[in-house]
Design brief:
Layout lengths: L1 H28 L15 H21 L3 H7 L8 H19 L6 E4 L3 H25 L1 H4 L2 H9 L20 H11 L3 E3 H29 L1 H9 L12
Antiparallel strand pairs: 1-2
Helix pairs in contact: 1-4, 1-7, 2-4, 2-9, 5-8, 8-9, 9-10
Length: 244
């Protein structure tokens, strides 16, 4: 029964993540969803900045702290190992939902592209960034990344092995295509408001902090194998070799 409950919990956590991810596309790009990044009641600018920074900080702290190995060692004393990743994914998704719900728009326009073809191209580029994010997760193991594989293995009584170091497709050219996709998605917009600029700037800064922390963990785990990979492959921009 415990295995069945863990499996159901993992599926629910994944469903919440998937809904939050799809909503995030509409939230950032201002399409389809009922409340996007520039929608909602306008608050005084300083109040909006403070609230938005608090919201982004909640996500950043949860996302970074819970991903660290020392925290996982402590956390799994209370949370069963098979659902540890699902719990992380669920809490990260809830932090995102909190941002969508409580975000305060700052509608002052920083730049605006009115030419229809150029505006559509920027929107298309943002959607392409989201596509890069999703495809990149599939290249390394989408379902393991979001906790589904762990609960499936637990359900069938199969032991999960440590994931091997691999660099498929995009990862042969850039070390962090998922983060690159997010940066493209956040910055490619025909209308950049002050609120959107705050969101893009803070999340991009957090991405670089996240890369630093993530690579520190990867070096600790894979050692020289990852050091050699880092020396040869660009972080977010492909490195062209002379032989090419």
């Amino acid at each position: 029964m415990g295995r069945v409950l863990s499996f159901g919990y993992g599926l629910v956590a994944y469903a919440v993540f998937l809904g939050a991810f799809l909503y995030a596309i509409g939230f950032v790009d201002g399409i389809i969803v009922p409340k996007a990044i520039d929608d909602g009641e306008v608050s005084p600018v300083l109040e909006a900045i403070v609230i938005n920074l608090v919201l982004l900080s909640i996500f950043a702290v949860q996302h970074s702290v819970m991903a660290r190995v020392p925290f996982k060692r402590w956390w799994t004393k209370f949370v069963p190992t098979p659902v540890e990743r699902s719990t992380y994914v669920l809490l990260a998704s809830l932090a995102l939902i909190l941002i969508f719900w409580q975000w305060r728009p700052i509608p002052m326009v920083v730049w605006q592209v009115n030419e229809p073809v150029a505006a559509s191209a920027l929107l298309g580029l943002s959607l392409f960034g989201w596509f890069i994010v999703l495809v990149s997760t599939c290249m390394i193991n989408h379902f393991e990344l979001f906790g589904v594989q762990q609960v499936v293995y637990h359900l069938v009584g199969r032991a999960a092995s440590a994931p091997p170091f691999k660099t498929p497709l995009l990862y042969k050219r850039i070390r962090h295509p998922i983060y690159l996709g997010f940066i493209i998605a956040f910055w490619a917009t025909p209308v950049m408001t002050a609120g959107h600029l705050l969101f893009a700037s803070v999340t991009t800064a957090y991405i670089f902090v996240g890369i630093f922390l993530e690579e520190k963990d990867l070096i600790a785990h894979y050692g020289d194998q990852y050091r050699q990979y880092r020396a040869k492959v660009g972080m977010l921009i492909p490195v062209l070799r002379r032989s090419e």
